[in-house]
Amino acid sequence: MADSVPALEARGLWAAYHQQPVLENLDLSLPQGEWTAIVGPNGAGKSSLLNLAIGSLAPVRGELKLLGQSAASQRRAGSIAYMAQQEHMEWDFPISVRETVLTGRYGLMRLDPLWQRLAPRLWANPSHRAAVDAALEAVDMADHAARPIGELSGGQKKRVMLARTLAQQARILLLDEPLAGVDPPSEALIMATLESERSAGRTIIMVTHDLPGARRYADNVVLINRTLIGMGSPDEMLSDAMLARLAVGAPEIAGGMRVAA
């Protein structure tokens, strides 16, 4: 069965920033079609794992595969979509919500023969328009499609960034702290949207400090502190005993995670 192939598989994976190790000998296998929450203290290498998957960080040694193939080949195939914790964009730039979400389709558009022959603004292939419309509906931002992105609240901007990720219609969604800095209504909407995507067969791999959210929504929880501490059900991995193991050498975990609902 195709689904028996891991969505993400790491073998002996090492990574570093400026010669400082961030991941050490990581072995990990994440299933397709499920929601996996990646939990760990600050500096544990959680975001680094996503950066390895999207190609913004190169491994020192070891192997990372996506859907049984090299990460690079799956990036080219459009199999992954990534939502950063903080978007590096000019919020005052005169671009609408719809146009912002459309940027998530640009990689696919470059491969579209109609897009290559016709002016991009014509949206030559209706599938691009449909994907953007569906993504805006999913995050309840369709009524704001024509608004300048800079006029939105923080929670609304986060929902637009999620819509841009969803518009790529990738098999794997990589999310780095998607709830950071959002208001409770947007938080609830984001989690409900992701739950719907998981139900539709998407693989969700989400870095989070929100332990109650991980317990409620995730199928699997991975504990990382530079290397794999454990992987299993939320109840097992978020027990006091496992969180104590995770925190060894990282006492700041108690201040950096939400441990109660």
From TrEMBL:
CDD domains: ABC_Metallic_Cations. Signal peptide: none annotated. The keyword Nucleotide-binding applies. One of its GO terms (molecular function) is ATP hydrolysis activity. InterPro entries: AAA+_ATPase, ABC_transporter-like_ATP-bd, ABC_transporter-like_CS, Metal_Ion_Import_ABC, P-loop_NTPase. SMART domains: AAA. Keywords: ATP-binding, Nucleotide-binding, Transport. Residues 8-251 form the ABC transporter domain. The keyword Transport applies. PANTHER family: IRON TRANSPORT SYSTEM ATP-BINDING PROTEIN HI_0361-RELATED, METAL TRANSPORT SYSTEM ATP-BINDING PROTEIN TM_0124-RELATED. Belongs to the ABC transporter superfamily. This is Metal ABC transporter ATP-binding protein. It comes from Billgrantia kenyensis.
